[in-house]
Specification:
The complex is a heterodimer of chains A (313) and B (306). Chain A contains 14 helices and two strands; from the N terminus they run H-H-E-E-H-H-H-H-H-H-H-H-H-H-H-H. By secondary structure, chain A is mainly α. In chain B, helix 3 packs across helix 15, helix 5 packs across helix 15 and helix 6 crosses helix 9. The chains are: A mainly alpha (313), B mainly alpha (306).
Chain lengths: 313, 306
Amino acid sequence: MSTSVKPSGTAAARGRRRGRPDRKAWAFLGPFLALYLFAMVVPVFYAIYQSMLKVERSGPMGLGEPSVGFAGFENYSLALQQETFVDGFGRVLLFGLVQVPVMLLLALVLALLLDQVSHRWAGLLRATYFLPYGIPGVIATILWGFLYVPGVSPVTDVLGDLGFQPDFLGYDNVLWSIANIVVWQFAGYNMLIIVAQLKSVPQELYEAARVDGAGPWQTALHIKIPLVRPALVLTTVFSIIGTMQLFAEPLVLKKVAPAVTTDYTPNLSAYFDAFANANLYLAAAKSVILAVVAMALSFGFLSLVTRKQRSER
Amino acid sequence: MSATSTRTTTGSEAAAQPPAAPAPRRRRAPRPGRIVLVAVLTVAALYFLLPVYWLVVAATKSNDSLYGSFGLWFDDPRLWDNLSRVFSYDGHVYLRWTLNSLLYAGVGAVLATLLSAAAGYALAKYRFAGREAVFKFVLAGVLLPSTALALPLYLMFSKLELTNTYWGVLIPSVVSPFGVYLCRIYAEAAVPDTVLEAARVDGAGEARIFFSLVLRIMTPALVTVFLFQFVHIWNNYFLPLVMLSDDRKYPITLGLVTWQQAADRVPELTQYTIGGAFVSVIPLAVAMLVLQRFWQTGLTEGSVKE
């Protein structure tokens, strides 16, 4: 890579002589790229196309044969005029503003504390915290659902004996009950990413800090936390994307929590438009809006972080 | 406490003293910080284990004692009886769901790993025009929200008549941009150019080098990619939900939610939902514990380097 650029003729000759057929790269890339195009790229454009269509009815009082016509941005303005759909965005944003910091703080604290424990215990505890990541979101929601419903839940039983009457599924609380499920599922996963970053730091650095008389608190604050910054950035971006897509948890809780409506989150709204209201074109527009907002937020966060990093240097 | 408190003077002072007492490697006295540390870690462990423990207890109960007894302790355990009903209900449909889940996640993850390995290796070890552009193009896929993609996929696949088929779930599952990213970083660091050149001099073809040499060197990264993709597909709900209408093709996630939602009409389904969740969670929980170290290898190699 660092060798100087040579005229293309000799470079090609050198490649042939050394027998590095760089064109073969496309044979290795081909299968992945073909499926990537087919299952990720084309659907995006197809959705954009679909979002610009509408069903047109002709004849007296719109009773004639329906036909598909071009709608332009009609579906987008329709979606954005739907107050409940926009409210859904507000709800997941509020959710993310609280849930993501809480989860990442928990992950960071656990990762730093595990660094202070003997090797054997650390391994066992790490696996325990990571365990919920292997449990599907819907099954986790079913489990927590049972722990929220009075009558079955030992949690409400115990709290009831202590004189509390928690209403986990009530109108004001259900969003935070969902947040708890998401924290439970992903805190350990994020912790593992942070732990991996901590492990990749040369041990001499910690040794040096100890020799200089830094206690565990100072080491954590001044050395470890700045070092795991890339991991925190990565987990934040993944969490933002995850939050925007919130779907399975509210859908499953809907059964026991009347406060969860069909447009509780943008994703739910798009789903019910497509499958309950049979309005595929509006659903496509909502999916596109959702993807754009999610990508804008994660790019926005990334550029904010990199700009701050630059100004600090 | 008074005896220990004299010992926990400042470290340097203690070290300066001659080792008079024959007590080498004496346990450090529990400082307040230590107690807080243990307390926080224990509370966290209880929090993460609570729903799983509840599940283990609940899976042994009858439908009546599910509501009638304290949730965190056993009451007339009958696990075997419960589980055999879970499996035999509705023409062994739960067994079908399990096999479907294993098929989707197993086959999907193997193919995703192979495709990612080939693409990542190509991006790391060959020089060709458009390499960085291709890499950026693939990275954009990492940031694309996957459930926002499920609906468009459904729209397209229904035109191609791929909905309600195994392909409808399998095809999107074998594409893992994040896997390509991990594989590229790992291959760059771990596959030495000299080894590749030596193999070429010996007359090995590119395909043979990849399958017999590169894949072996990349094994730690491949295990990580496989595990992530397996869990990703296993846990997926939105994609099968929109793609499948025939409940014989459902994975476990979809099936259990159907049971849960139908439980107010068929009360015994509450217990079957719990039993089914128990059967699906326990093997995965064991696998998470056993394979824990592989998760970390891959993460250290790849995802956290900026």
